[in-house]
Amino acid sequence: MAVKPVPDGYHTVTPYLAILNAAAAIDFYKQAFGAVEAMRVDAPGGKVGHAELRIGDSAVMLADECPDMGFRSPQTLGGPGMTLMLYVDDVDAWFARALAAGAKTLRPLQDQFYGDRSGTLEDPFGHVWTLATHIEDLSLEEITERAAKFMPQG
Predict the structure, then answer these.
(1) How does strand 83-87 pair with strand 128-134?
(2) Which has more pLDDT, 94 or 9?
(3) pTM here?
(4) Are 117 and 76 in contact (CB under 8 A)?
(5) Cβ-count burial of 121 within 10 angstroms (0-12 exposed, 13-18 middle, 19+ buried)?
(6) Contact 55, 29 (CB under 8 A)
(7) How many CB atoms lie within 10 A of CB 45?
């Protein structure tokens, strides 16, 4: 049987996070987002060389930063180079859980013009997560019309 180019349980795109203190981050993601640790490869000096977590139906890979390889954390860079979007069944409960685990609010929860209830958090390791529950199906026309009311003109 041929090897699958995308392994079972993975999607075509998988985030890979560079982190200072990846072991602590794994514990945080378990507490805040219900992550399940699928794999961990330790590196010298108590570092995590590679780890894989499952959050819902998605994989998130992470490791301690390795500046020699150009793999730098948000703390080293002075901010994240990307954000993560996490769709959940009850965004209010998940947001509260993440705050209780040590995240800080960057944008509070609110119903958005595009049909999601969402808010944005920064985790203790500098990564930014937007948590959302989809609450309303809208056409592109409806979203565009609503966006015009929320976006600054000029």
Answers:
(1) parallel
(2) 94
(3) 0.89
(4) no
(5) buried
(6) yes
(7) 6
Closest CA to 131 of 107, 102, 101, 100: 107
Reading phi first (left if > 0) and then psi (alpha if -120 to 50, else beta), residue 111 is in: beta
**Helix axis angle, 91-101 relative to 22-33, nearest 10°?**
150
Q: Among residues 88, 135, 87, 84, which one has the least CA distance to residue 111? A: 135
Note the maximum CA span of the chain: 59
Tokens standing for residue 80: 């994240």
- Overall average pLDDT of the 57-74 stretch: 95
Residues 6 or more apart whose Cβ sits within 8 Å of residue 147:
113, 114
What is the DSSP annotation of 64-99? E-BGGGTB--HHHHTS-SSEEEEE-S-HHHHHHHHH
How many residues does this entry show for the chain? 154
